[in-house]
Write a structure and sequence with these properties.
mainly alpha; transmembrane helix; transmembrane; membrane
């Protein structure tokens, strides 16, 4: 017989039928966050250059 702790470990979710619907968006969000973090300075400079009046 399984103890309560073993049941918890066995039902930790690795065989959950809807696990894909949890993991895929989580992974995509993580990758998007990495991309935003990588290009945030470049994006910030581009936005500020678009909003600042030119000196012409």
């Amino acid at each position: 017989m399984c103890s309560r702790m073993q049941e918890l470990v066995l039902h930790a979710g690795h065989e959950h039928p809807n696990l894909v619907w949890v993991l895929v968006p989580s992974l995509l969000t993580f990758i998007a966050g990495l991309g935003i973090g990588t290009f945030s300075e470049r994006t910030r400079e581009w936005i500020h250059s678009q909003t600042e009046p030119s000196s012409e």
